[in-house]
């Protein structure tokens, strides 16, 4: 194994040393007699030139990679920020980095423009919108090449660095106002109790994988329907709420949004459950958070950016219309008390199952701890000689029992 690595390395070192074999054969007096310019001319600079070219290559690819990510991020967030501010009328849009940088960029970038974050708040029905994006580390060309090679030869290997995505999380606030002079409803907490359900529209190309990645989708039923484009399926806790999203959006939602977003939209989900499976009932309760999750690939052109904006606007529209129906106590509300009760019963079964698994794990851990304590106790007894005494007593006890059984057989 070492020979396979060392042999080529040794040959390479010998080759590099051989480039200046003539120069190295000069005596000290001959080198001393040369001027600095004569030494520069006489010396073979091939290896050094290749090193400089290699460093220039890395620097150029680094700059190109960073500039590509910056360009993608600027276009993405400029489009979203403009739409949120001008069309959806959010009072505050964007974040400013505390580390300085370009003040015109209202988003935070980390790890050389691979992790990007922005935010919007200040609007009826919506508490906040969190925007997260991940781009490939194009600044590190060697790492990308290695990841691609590993992915090609090992089909099960999936590097998270190679996955580019955009995730938008919209949180409701349970407050609906029709205009600036309208009074704010004071029962927002009560309103938010009606957002405890899971209903989603998921792209068929990713539905199997996404059920494994997202806990809240693993609890849903898959339904293929003609009411949405053929590229999508419904994934809801119960089938009665499949039409929730379409009921609160415009009639053109299928043609103007879903159909045009089929190449980059992964899923839309209204949920209050966590992304990962809770360990117990307490963790389940603490992790509940009503929200709409939109996950997409990074839009590649202006048309996809416009479709993304319409998609975000449609989900905000869902919260607007649903919150309005709840505040005004409309009879047309899609999510009824009976539906919420049925969902709650299904969730109680899931909580019971989680608690059962948690207790089983706790019991197994306790048994493992008990075994470890017994092993530790035996080690301590062995050191003090007490273990040998106990084993001797046990042997004598077994021998006495054996003799007693033999006497009983003889007397019988």
TrEMBL record:
<feature type="compositionally biased region" description="Basic and acidic residues">
    <location>
        <begin position="372"/>
        <end position="385"/>
    </location>
</feature>
<dbReference type="GO" id="GO:0005783">
    <property type="term" value="C:endoplasmic reticulum"/>
</dbReference>
<feature type="region of interest" description="Disordered">
    <location>
        <begin position="372"/>
        <end position="412"/>
    </location>
</feature>
<feature type="transmembrane region" description="Helical">
    <location>
        <begin position="42"/>
        <end position="62"/>
    </location>
</feature>
<protein>
    <submittedName>
        <fullName>Uncharacterized protein</fullName>
    </submittedName>
</protein>
<keyword id="KW-1133">Transmembrane helix</keyword>
<dbReference type="GO" id="GO:0032469">
    <property type="term" value="P:endoplasmic reticulum calcium ion homeostasis"/>
</dbReference>
<dbReference type="GO" id="GO:0005509">
    <property type="term" value="F:calcium ion binding"/>
</dbReference>
<dbReference type="GO" id="GO:0016020">
    <property type="term" value="C:membrane"/>
</dbReference>
<dbReference type="InterPro" id="IPR012879">
    <property type="entry name" value="CCDC47"/>
</dbReference>
<keyword id="KW-0812">Transmembrane</keyword>
<feature type="compositionally biased region" description="Basic residues">
    <location>
        <begin position="400"/>
        <end position="412"/>
    </location>
</feature>
<keyword id="KW-0472">Membrane</keyword>
<dbReference type="Pfam" id="PF07946">
    <property type="entry name" value="CCDC47"/>
</dbReference>
């Amino acid at each position: 194994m070492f020979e396979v690595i060392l042999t080529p390395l040794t040959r390479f070192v010998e080759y590099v040393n051989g480039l200046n074999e003539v120069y190295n054969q000069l005596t000290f007096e001959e080198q001393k007699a040369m001027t600095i310019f004569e030494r520069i001319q006489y010396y073979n600079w091939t290896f050094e030139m290749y090193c400089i070219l290699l460093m220039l290559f890395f620097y150029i690819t680094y700059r190109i990679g960073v500039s590509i990510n910056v360009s993608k991020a600027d276009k993405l967030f400029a489009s979203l920020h403009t739409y949120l501010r001008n069309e959806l009328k959010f009072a505050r849009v964007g974040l400013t980095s505390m580390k300085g940088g370009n003040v015109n960029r209202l988003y935070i970038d980390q790890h050389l423009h691979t992790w990007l974050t922005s935010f919007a708040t200040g609007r009826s029905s919506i508490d906040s919108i969190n925007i997260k994006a991940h781009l490939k580390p194009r600044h590190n060309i060697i790492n990308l090449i290695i990841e691609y090679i590993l992915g090609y030869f090992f089909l099960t290997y999936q590097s998270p660095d190679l996955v580019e995505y955009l995730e938008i999380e919209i949180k409701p606030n349970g407050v609906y106002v029709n205009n600036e002079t309208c009074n704010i409803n004071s029962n927002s907490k009560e309103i938010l109790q009606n957002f405890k359900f899971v209903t989603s529209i998921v792209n068929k190309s990713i539905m199997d994988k996404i059920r494994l990645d997202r806990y809240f989708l693993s609890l849903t039923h898959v339904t293929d329907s003609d009411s949405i484009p053929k590229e999508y399926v419904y994934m809801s806790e119960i089938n009665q709420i499949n039409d929730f999203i379409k009921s609160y959006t415009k009639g053109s939602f299928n043609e103007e949004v879903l159909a045009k977003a089929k190449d980059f939209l992964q899923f839309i989900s209204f949920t209050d459950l966590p992304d990962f499976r809770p360990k117990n009932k307490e963790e389940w309760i603490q992790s509940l958070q009503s929200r709409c999750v939109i996950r997409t690939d990074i839009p590649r052109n202006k048309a996809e950016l416009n479709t993304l904006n319409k998609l975000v606007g449609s989900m905000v529209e869902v919260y607007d219309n649903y919150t309005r129906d709840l505040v005004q106590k409309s009879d047309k509300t899609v999510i009824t008390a009976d539906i919420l009760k049925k969902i709650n019963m299904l969730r109680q079964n899931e909580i019971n199952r989680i608690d059962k698994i948690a207790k089983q794990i706790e019991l197994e851990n306790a048994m493992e701890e008990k075994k470890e304590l017994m092993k530790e106790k035996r080690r301590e007894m062995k050191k003090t000689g007490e273990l040998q005494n106990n084993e001797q007593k046990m042997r004598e006890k077994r021998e006495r029992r054996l003799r007693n059984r033999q006497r009983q057989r003889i007397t019988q």
